[in-house]
Specification:
single chain, 2 domains, eight-stranded mixed sheet, 3 helices
Length: about 180
């Protein structure tokens, strides 16, 4: 007995096959991109640190590179990057402008995570370095806001994603500002 395929089931089966092949191809392209990105990331982070150039950093060339930069922290203008939980404790990353020595321009330095109870800079006087320091950092770009990320609230110093231009404007420092 000969089976004659019906038109609509065959049409939908072939359309489904085309969609699945397209998605498989996209996954392979994404894998190649991701492997290239990880290779670039690892090679740049493993390279020896370089002195940060005086001009604004070309993010394409310097992103994820280790650099040295000297300057003084401006603790009165630090910002608080929220939504960071470490070992079940709510906190955030402290981002402090660093005025570069001899140049006067600023960079934003992510100084690390603190619990919510230490958000106020008066609760952590030992972290308020008041001399010229040399920082070894990794150059990073800003973070893109996604659909689930709340809007930043600069008035209350609540930042949910890094936006170097907006942070510089709120801090009253010169732009462009790099983020480390």
């Amino acid at each position: 007995m000969w089976l004659r395929p019906k038109f609509w089931p065959t049409f939908f089966a072939l359309a489904g096959l085309v969609v699945l092949l397209s998605l498989g191809s996209w996954q392979l392209q994404r894998l190649a991109w991701k492997n290239g990105f990880l290779e670039r990331l690892q090679s740049r982070m493993a390279a020896a640190a370089v002195v940060m150039p005086d001009d604004p950093v070309d993010l394409e060339r310097f992103e994820f590179r280790r650099i040295f930069v000297a300057g003084e922290f401006d603790h009165d203008r630090e910002m608080y990057l929220l939504n960071r939980v470490v070992n079940g404790v709510v906190g955030g990353n402290i981002i402090t402008p660093l005025r570069r020595e001899g140049i006067g321009s600023h960079i934003l330095v992510d100084r690390g995570w603190v619990p919510q109870s230490l958000r106020d800079l008066t609760t952590r006087p030992e972290s308020q370095v008041s001399r010229v320091v040399t920082v070894e950092a990794i150059v990073r770009g800003g973070h893109e806001k996604n659909l689930f990320t709340p809007d930043n609230d600069p008035a209350s110093n609540d930042w949910y994603f890094v936006d170097p231009a907006a942070m510089a404007a709120v801090a009253g420092i010169d732009a462009p500002v790099e983020y480390f």
